[in-house]
Amino acid sequence: MTLLKFGRSTVFDCGRRPEEVREAGERFGTALSPKTVKHLIPNGDGWLLALWQTWDPDKLVPHRRPVAIVPGYGMNSFIFSFHPNGLSLEGALVDAGFEVWRADLRGQGESIRLPEGRKDHGLEEMALGDLPIAVQAMLERTRTGADRVDMIGASLGGTFMFMYAALDPHHHLGSLVAMGSPVRWVEVHPAVRVLFASPWLVGLVPILGTRKMAEWALPRVTRHAPWLISLYMNPTSTDVSAASEMVKTVEDPTRFVNREIARWIRKRDLTVRGVNLSERLRAVDLPLLCIVAAHDGVVPRGTAEFAYHQIGSRDRQLLVVGDRALAMAHADLFVANAAQREVFAPIVEFLQKRVPRGVTKKLA
After folding, report:
1. How many domains is the chain built from?
2. 363 lies in a domain?
3. Do the Cβ atoms of 331 and 218 come closer than 8 Å?
4. Which residues contact residue 177 at a Cβ distance below 8 angstroms, ignoring those fewer than 6 apart?
5. Is the dihedral of CA 216, 219, 224, 228 positive or negative?
6. CA triple 311-163-340, angle to 5 deg
């Protein structure tokens, strides 16, 4: 099933092959750009994954790899297509000539659980089950002619990205961008340590209604007690007047993932399929831009920097965003007033400089 969106208009397109989807889109309205197509892709485990493909026909550079954006814990990919006062991350990349894909894995965004789909999924299922299928679907439908994707992993989405790169020998990845992503918990904020102190307790009770609670609380907390959310977002750096839109990215965290995160923090390293991810990262030889928010309390600097120091690639860059004048926490990397200049522009530049030579097929 595919939904096509051109400007503000949408049309459903069910069960078509990639080439038929492209033809339908071209008939529907080539004059409007950029264009967004929503694909629903079966993951083989009872879920339809929602993938959002966006490009500008007038600006698309065909020899560039498509860029896949993967959201993290308790969130979906909406926030990468939204910014309260300027271009979103998706918009900045599309404006620079990239085809951009936002991926909602199981339990995220508009992905759909079928009757046979399980609720008790964990990190492994999302990173090594959903992500390879999502990437395959992107490459089957891309308009660029590429055979690999560049990937941006946000928060836990970056962990998924590293798991895929390190543990799947058949991955189709080019360059990597990690935004506040943990691999080894070198530092843990005291509040996070308390919250995840007991794997049994944090994995016991389902958490529901998170988005409604965030919509009610965010404007009130930022007005009366901004310090309460400063480890996640700084109201001095981010315009929170559009809270009702921003919270659309919030999802209920699953208790099964909560339990895994608690165990991971306690042990410091994440073990997947019997393999220590921190150690296996030494074997990954892909370009990496590691982005760290200087005032991040969710994934503190020491933890967020670990992948930069550990990865086996010589082509790696570390970008620390924020200083005394610009307080940047976890979510500020996506929505801060200065995000276009401090975060999005360096990502665009990093990816532009790592364009592959030639293409594997003609531009569709």
Report:
1. 1
2. no
3. no
4. 150, 151, 152, 153, 288, 289, 291, 347, 350, 351
5. positive
6. 70
129, 43 in Cβ contact below 8 A? yes
Q: Tell me the one-letter amino acid at 355.
A: V
**pTM, rounded to two decimals:** 0.88
CA distance 342 to 337: 9
From the centroid of its chain, how far is CA 325? 27
**pLDDT tens-digit series, residues 80-122:** 999 998 999 999 999 999 999 999 999 999 999 999 988 888 9
- 37 within a domain of the structure (yes/no): no
Residue 314 gets which letter from DSSP? Answer: S
Torsion of CA 171, 175, 181, 185, to 10 degrees: 70
Print the domain residue range for 171: 54-109+122-352
The DSSP string of 131-154 is HHHHHHHHHHH-SS--SSEEEEEE
Q: How far apart are CA 2 and CA 21, in angstroms?
A: 8
Q: pLDDT (tens digit, 9 = 90+) per residue, 148-195? A: 999 999 999 999 999 999 999 999 999 999 999 999 999 999 989 988
The crossing angle, in degrees rounded to 10, of helices 131-141 and 156-167 is 80
Q: Is residue 148 part of a domain?
A: yes
Residue appearing with tokens 């907390």:
221
Of 270, 292, 80, nearest in space to 160 by CA: 270
Question: Vertex 174, ends 332 and 40: CA angle to 5°?
Answer: 70
Going by the DSSP 8-state scheme, the letter that residue 75 receives in this structure is B
Task: Count CB atoms within 10 A of the CB of residue 351.
Answer: 22
- CATH assignment at residue 255: 3.40.50.1820
- CB-CB contact of 55 with 38 (8 Å): no
- Dihedral sign for Cα 320, 326, 332, 336, please: negative
Q: Confirm whether 8 is domain-assigned.
A: no
At 102, which amino acid appears? R
